[in-house]
Amino acid sequence: MPSDISSVTPSAVSTHSSKKRKKYEDLGITFVGPKDVGFKDHILEPLRVTWAKSAPTNSKPPNILSSQPLLQSGVIIRWKDYELKRIAKEFREYKARQYDEHALSTLCFDSIVLRDRWIENDLVDENDLVDEDDPVDEVGLVKEDQEPILTSVRRDKWKPHKQGPTIPGGIYTYDWDIEPDTTYAVSIRMFDIERRRQLNLENSQRWLAEKDVAVCPYLTVEYKCLDKGGKESHAAYQTVAASVLWLYQRKQIRNDLDLPLNELRHYLITLVDSFYVISEARFVPNSYVVRERVTGDLRRIDDLKLYIEWSNAIHAWGLGPNASSFKKDIETLLERKRSQKPFPTPSGTLSPMGPPPQRPGELQQGACHDRAQGSSEEFRET
To answer: Are 60 and 239 in contact, with CB atoms under 8 Å apart?
Structure first.
């Protein structure tokens, strides 16, 4: 065992992590979670996760909302000025009254971390009045030419249990049970009924966030209350871990398709009392990078407006270019599997044995994450 193992003691970890530690200690492996001492040193750094914390306080997001059919989405925030004043006042009173994390999350859910309406667009309620011209057949299913309704799925206290990258060295481990406070993903209903049936029949669902519900998580939110023992570092590490997990999952699909990684990303929001940090996680050569994009205090009207601009832009990207890119990848993967088309190898030859292993140097030196191409070009920094 390493000489600094005393830095990760049972007294320094959450009860949840302590239970998991027992599972690994007989194997000579130390479990380290986001709330444990040493998570950055023993988990993030070996995975080459870098952090750029120099966020400009007034950084503006690009405006892509108007170009997306999302203006009626429930996650898009549209408060009027008098409502913004009320929300800012509530955050001031929250701090003054020393409320707990539950009160903080409730305040956020009511004002800035909204839930989309759940629209079952492939089924018709028997109580609905159905017009003869509605595109519905006799069993209540929407016909194939009906455009799917795209929604965002907000899941609270999600435990996805998805396989993440292996921690190098074999001494420390983390099981990627990220337990985020809130995760936003794209409703699985962006796929037609037949595609959803195919997805549910797949033996390996590594790219599904939750079976039958949502795919392609694009935003993770974590709350902490300082007065009740919450730590900013815990919130940061939990959201970074979620970003690494989801980027890694998406990378596996891209590797199977022999596609580039430079347009992939995941967004993070940490809310510590009234203070927020919005960050973006992406691939860079041989590593992950988390870059803070904007910080602010929700007690201030201008900072609250900036938060809303960023939140709306992230959802517009997540349900727009991001969802379209993911859908195309999955449909290509399923079609290739259906036709048993050989996968291309890095050399350009075809292998009948399936997808090639991870390509050495897939994140070649000289590639730059600021040169993203393709569908996410719209969301580049301007």
So the answer is: no
| Band of pLDDT at residue 196, cut at 50, 70 and 90 | confident
Question: Shortest CA distance to 108 belongs to which of 229, 234, 270, 241?
Answer: 270
Whether the CB-CB separation of 216 and 209 falls below 8 Å is answered with: yes
- β-bridge mates for residue 350, sequence order: 344
Which of helix, strand or coil describes residue 172? strand
Rounded-to-integer distance, Cα 329 and Cα 319, Å: 15
* pTM score: 0.76
3-state class of 119 per DSSP?
coil
Distance of CA 357 to the CA centre of its chain: 25
Confidence tier at 336 by pLDDT (50, 70, 90): confident
C-alpha to C-alpha distances, 21 to 2, 27, 311, nearest whole angstrom:
16, 10, 36
Share of the chain above pLDDT 70, in %: 65
Q: How many angstroms from the chain centroid is the CA of residue 251?
A: 13
Are 267 and 247 within 8 A, CB to CB?
no
Amino acid at 313: A
Classified as helix, coil or strand, 369 is: helix
pLDDT in tens, 42-73: 999 999 999 877 666 667 887 665 555 566 67
Please provide the average confidence, as pLDDT, over all residues in the chain: 74
Length reported for the chain: 382
CB 180 within 8 A of CB 242: yes
Instruction: State the Cα–Cα distance between residues 316 and 292, nearest whole angstrom.
Output: 19
Q: Enumerate the H helices of the chain as residue ranges.
A: 15-25, 39, 81-97, 101-111, 193-201, 232-257, 301-319, 321-339
Q: Where are the domains of the chain?
A: 49-118+144-379
Tokens of 241: 């871990």
**CA nearest to 221, candidates 108, 76, 77, 301:** 108
